[in-house]
Amino acid sequence: MKKPRLIAAVAAAALIPLALAGCSGSGSSSGSAKSLTIEDYFTSSYNPIYNKCAKQLGITLKINHVAGAGLISKVLQQASSKTLPDVLMLDNPDVQQIAESGALSPLSDYGLSAKGDVPAVEKANTYKGKLYGLQPVTNSIALYYNKKLLSAAGITPPKTWDELRADAKKLTKGSTYGFAMSNINTYEGTWQFLPFMWGNGGDEKNIDTTATTEALQFDLSLQSDGSMSKSSVNWAQADVNNQFIAGKAAMMINGPWQLPALNAAKGLEFDSVPIPTKTGSPTVAPLGGEAFTVPETGNKASMTTAGKFVGCLNTSKMQTYNAGVTGNVPTNIVASKAWGASHPQVASFVTTVQTARARTGELGPDWPKAATKIYTAVQLALTGKATPAAALKQAQSQSQ
Amino acid sequence: MSVTAQPRVRPTATPLPMRPGQRRARILANTMRWLFVIPAAIFVAVFFGYPIVKNIVMSFQDYGTRTFFTGEAPWVGISNYVQVFSSSLFTTSLINTGLFTVGSIVMQFAIGLGLALFFKRNFPLSGFLRGLLLLPWLIPLIASSAIWKWLLDQGSGALNQGLALFGIPAVPWLVDPNLALVAVIGVNIWLGIPFNTTILYSGLQAVPEELYEAASLDGATGWKAFRHITWPSIRSVVSVVIVLGVVYTLKVVDLILGLTGGGPANSTQTLATNAYHQSFVNFEFGVGAAVSNVLIVVSFVFAMVYLAITRKAVDE
Question: How far does the CA of residue A395 sit from the closest CA of chain B (Å)?
Fold first, then answer.
């Protein structure tokens, strides 16, 4: 009989992938507490911050920078193959979603808390009563303005919606629009619309309300006045920044991460103020920035060291150092105020961050669905497919 | 050194009387035959069978971010499909997919055939020009969509600046929800022309020149020659081009994501981008799988048509 040989050949062929998988699976879980792996979507300019803490703890680091858009898919892959890094950076609205999956360990295990940080940080990083992430620095958005164009028109920066609308109209001349913001069909568009919505008392639980309708109506009025380009439905925040640098927008909504590009632009004089609200009350803008978390890797020794490392990153001294490198705002209230006093360019962001609101504060892991509804409504209204009220109603009832 | 041709031993067709050991040889031959098939069978099962089966299973599960850590994907029956079919976005996606596919294929084919006929007449530099025509095919899709996004920009895009020279006001190509789909189809047509031209051109090369000579003696030239000689001769090539084009166009995702991301206001959302959005933005892989299964069924129908056509062509 020759059949067994055939079966043996098939079996051998079938085993090859298993053998290969066996080879690649081992090795990475043997990390001792003397070294840590870190994963983030920053660039190597962030490394000095890590290295300072590594030196303090006497450990070596393996830093892995991933392209921004691919981070979450990579984390999901690593979760299923049990190869999560020791320290994982996450954008703050993603923290609760990942914590829900069970991939993160509570930071109270390592004696860490968000005490002394701006209140929104704790809200953004807490899932079911437990803190999962800490943000050394944070950011938000504010209203940048071109100093030369405003003084030429004899305008001081607006504080209320009416002022913003009138100023934007006055500043619109030739190929220059008075105002620019991103209304794109991604979470960036939602993030930029939130100050108008929240500042007017709107809420993500139900966007089919008068307060949110007024906010969307205001966004639309800027466009129908001709003060904001119709292209804003296709602009990401980087595009908005390019318009501002090119002098095609006199005012824009953007964040402190644009400061390096803005400072590098020759001949551009700019400053920023908190985003105007309807009546001039304090701005309610979304809290930005990235959190550091300690994934459940199963290796207790390196998880403990990772906890210490995250704690080190979050000390006020390291927060201030971090702010200097990244242009963001320290999350510690005392440190942030000191930072704002010495760095006038970020002063408006320091003010905004104190009263900022966490996007996941209310809905937690369900935030992405609400965010999709919000940008869908904004797009429907700005493209003229529906009135603001109808657009919000339609988006709210959308089942996706 | 010269190579001398070895005389080949031709296998004899006449059956030989049974000899001991021949049975063994036949079993060995059978085994050998199977051994040649097995690698291909394993390849197909692992790289084509498994993903499709997995995708079908996934569409009946609640497969989210949690699944990746715990490995648990609760069975939810047809609720993913219910969610997909009851969403207003599904209808929009379906209509857009239809418009996108039909619009792209009709224009790609018409322009492709026109260019193929044009290049059939040999003229100076025709080879060089035909080479240039392949260019859209050679550029990575994500790069060409980024470039087209600049070209089509309402305020500072090259296309609108060109139109401004003729006094035409700026056209909101990617901004107006009524125009965005047209613009996206236009870019996809540009992308598909090389494929259509190349395949149709090679089909035209295979038409014997004598047929035209004979026909011209009978007075059939120009349109008549095309209708009675060219078209019947390339018909099988035409059906292959169209069916492959349809399957290829149905699944376009990167071009749309690069140009509009499905916007503005979902006006360029297709089944493919919808599936992408569900799986990789919302991380609802079960719902994404349900949408892509719809797409797979549609593609499968066209693939069957393709197989039927090619088989017929071989039979002829």
Answer: 10
B262: left (phi over 0), alpha (psi -120 to 50) or beta: left
Collapsing DSSP to helix, strand or coil, A1 comes out as: coil
Domain B90-315, CATH homologous superfamily name and number? MetI-like (1.10.3720.10)
Residue A80 with chain B: CB contacts under 8 Å: 67-69, 71
Please state the pTM of the whole predicted model: 0.84
Segments making up each domain of chain B, as ranges: 90-315
Dihedral over alpha carbons A297, A299, A305, A309 (to 10 degrees): -10
A375 inside domain: yes
Q: Which residues of B touch A (CB under 8 A)?
A: 27-28, 31, 34-35, 38-39, 42, 46, 64-71, 83, 86-89, 153-156, 172, 174-177, 260-267, 278, 280-283
Compare A351 and B5 and report the one with higher pLDDT.
Answer: A351
Token code pair at residue A243? 């318009």
Together in a domain, A244 and A181:
yes
Mean pLDDT split into 10-residue runs, chain A, 400 residues: 44 44 39 82 94 94 91 92 95 93 94 93 94 96 96 95 97 94 95 96 95 97 95 93 95 94 93 95 94 95 95 96 92 94 93 94 91 95 95 84
ipTM exceeds 0.85? no
Spatial contact of B212 and B225, defined as CB atoms under 8 Å apart: yes
Q: How far is B265 from chain A (nearest CA, A)?
A: 5
Residues of A with a Cβ under 8 Å from any B Cβ are 2, 5-6, 9-10, 13-14, 17, 72-73, 76-77, 79-80, 97-98, 100-103, 175, 184-186, 229-231, 233-234, 248, 368-369, 372, 376, 379-380, 382-385, 398-400
